[in-house]
Amino acid sequence: MNLEITTQVMLWGGGLAFILGAVANKTNFCTMGAVSDWVNMGDTGRMRAWFLAVAVAIIGVSLFEVMSVLDTSTSRVPYRSSVFFWPRYLLGGVMFGVGMTLASGCGNKNLIRIGGGNLKSIFVVLVAGAMAYVMTRTDFYGVVFHSWMLPISPNLAAINIPDQSIGSLVGALVGAESPASLNLYFGLGLSILLLVVIFRSKDFRTSLDLVMGGLVVGLVVLGGWYITGGPMGVAWMEAVEFMDTPPPSTGTQSYTFINPMGEALTYLASPGKFSLITFGVAALFGVILGSFTYALVSRSFRIEWFVNLSDFIRHMIGAVLMGIGGVLAMGCTIGQGVTGVSTLAVGSFMAMGAIILGSALTMKVQYYKLVYEEEASFSKALLTGLVDLKLLPESLRKLEAV
Question: Which structural domain, as residue segments, surrounds residue 203?
Answer without folding.
Answer: 2-396
